[in-house]
Amino acid sequence: MSRVVNAMKRNNKKSTFILQLTAMVDMFTIIIVFLLKSYSTSAVNITPQKGLDLPMSSSYTSPVEGVKVVVSKMGIFVQDRQVITFENGKILNRDIASEDSDFISDLFKALNNEAEKARAIAEKNEEYKFDGKIIMQADKELPYGVLKKVMYTASMAGYADLKMATLSME
Question: Which of 24, 34, 45, 116 has its CA 20 to 30 A from that of 11?
């Protein structure tokens, strides 16, 4: 490299500027590291189901990974699979356990299956840990009683950490 610089000096005596590549490489490295550290993305993608009207919220937190539960006017979906069908936005009596009026049997079975899958993965993979997180999307016009039953049943299946998906007011 120094031979090239010396040859350039001999051939072009009018020029006094020599390009310092080391300083430029250092500068670009610092800029790239700064940009990578300040760039933030989320691996979790939440897309509302068709016909679902999510509530608005002024608070903002990054989404987390968890089991996707959608409570719409049509029914309850776990991981995009319908487990409960609603009639006029209400849970049918046949879907509620007779011994506990807040317990939804089929929802419990679906969530329990998801929990068992996660625990089986955690046994085989030391890096993965079952943490009982649910991302719940609920239509804003549903009565609170329906959401309460869903949250109660989810907690009985081992999902105590529930996050609600909302639309940002911004």
Answer: 24
